[in-house]
């Protein structure tokens, strides 16, 4: 088997806003779309991201441990810019920190089971034994 994509859930009322955030602010392109879901890819990436509409009334209380993660030299500032963009679209979002090098953006009314994480690139410098 070969890894293909990761799927996360969005509330229907903010689905299009989150898709716009990923396409206009983060450069993702739309690969496929159905009534319930959309598949996106960021240029240069080899794993796709799927968002599905979810009417689940309960929120995942531990969603800070489930992230769509990005590398950035300025992670806090980049997430704050996304939060500002989201607020301008009528979607409340806030930035928090896991550490001084790892930050997250949550849009509680939109993200059902994940947050957007941004971390310094050195945190992803994993030594691989091949």
UniProtKB/TrEMBL annotation:
Organism (species): Belnapia rosea
InterPro entries: Glyas_Bleomycin-R_OHBP_Dase
Database matches in Gene3D superfamilies: 2,3-Dihydroxybiphenyl 1,2-Dioxygenase, domain 1
Record-given protein name: VOC domain-containing protein
Domain of life: Bacteria
